[in-house]
Amino acid sequence: MVRAAVLMRQGEPLEVRDIELGDPGPGQVRVRVAAAGVCHSDLSLANGTLALDMPAVLGHEGAGTVVSVGEGVDRVSVGDPVVLNWAPACRACWFCEQGEPWLCVHAEERATHPYARFTDGTPVYPGLGTGAFAEETIVPQQGVVPIPADFPLEQAAVLGCAVLTGNGAVHNTARVRAGQSVVVIGLGGIGLSVLQAARAAGAGPIIGVDVSGSKASLAAVHGATDFIVADDKTSKAIRGLTGGRGADHAFDCVGLPATIRASWGSSRRGGTVTVIGVGSRTSPVEFNALELYWFGRTLHGCVYGSSDPDVDVPRLLDEVAAGRVDLAALATDSTDLTGVNAAFEHFGQGGRTIVRF
């Protein structure tokens, strides 16, 4: 039996329940979870912004230790520490063959198949294919990335989404260069990771924007040279800090129509806007035809930081060793399984909340 935080119905609190996992099947790995980050995507699943099969164990940003493996597993062995990869690539579809594994057409299939059961036999699904809000989980072997044995697992957890996404958005999607100006709207775990990556890239100025003025000191720790409390004059204030032009790069880490438009209005003519935040399909964003032509801006969507975890996790570990990425600073709060709902309620008040097991 394994304790897990389970979403029974969208719009209702998660329930801590016992689930039965069973043994890993062919090509599968069973992992004892040491820590899992509480990501806004988990809240989007819980509140109905994103669809999923239920009941489901949420949590997709985690790290732990392999406790058993199924037949044919050659990627890891029992006892190996690993980071969970919630979007494992098949390496064979058209997108994977084009070098875009973050767009793999099979990456999300795992979430549509039960992986556990309640004691009464009710099937349980893994949220985003991972089910990290549990003492243990079972994932395909492509869903784990081995890490060094001496690396702290509680720090490694945020690699699985916040850092791969935020750092990847800067280096892989937007390709920020030294000396370019950057604005980051929304300073949760991913936004703070974007700040760190922009600093490591040599960008400047780096402007953090959030609705909470209490984020100013946190933004500075992670690399912001300036901080703005979001209001209807945000874009004007950013232009004032960037020679009247607007930023070379704007990153939206929220996903609301208003923040996407603010990112658009904050970028310079010919600049780049990268949308990282996961929004709702019922929330349209409008642009008129003239502004699309006249401003010459590039608007990017950004899935998983355009990252390949097999390549980018080792790269990020090197960045950590070099002091350019600070994983410990991203985790501003911690809890146990019973505190996940409270973490949802307090989104926007800090960085990442880490569930410790």
List keywords for this structure.
single chain, 357 residues, Quinone Oxidoreductase, Chain A, domain 1, Rossmann fold, 7-stranded mixed β-sheet, 6-stranded parallel β-sheet, 12 helices
Task: Map the helices and strands.
Layout: E1 2-7, E2 15-19, E3 28-38, H1 40-47, E4 56-57, E5 61-69, E6 81-84, H2 94-97, E7 116-117, E8 123-126, E9 136-140, E10 144-146, H3 153-156, H4 162-174, E11 182-185, H5 189-200, E12 206-210, H6 216-221, E13 226-229, H7 234-240, E14 247-252, H8 257-266, E15 267-275, H9 289-295, E16 298-301, H10 309-321, H11 327-330, E17 331-335, H12 340-345, E18 352-356
Parallel strand pairs: 4-8, 11-12, 11-14, 12-13, 14-15, 15-16, 17-18
Antiparallel strand pairs: 1-2, 1-4, 3-5, 3-9, 3-18, 5-6, 6-10, 7-8
Helix pairs in contact: 4-5, 7-8
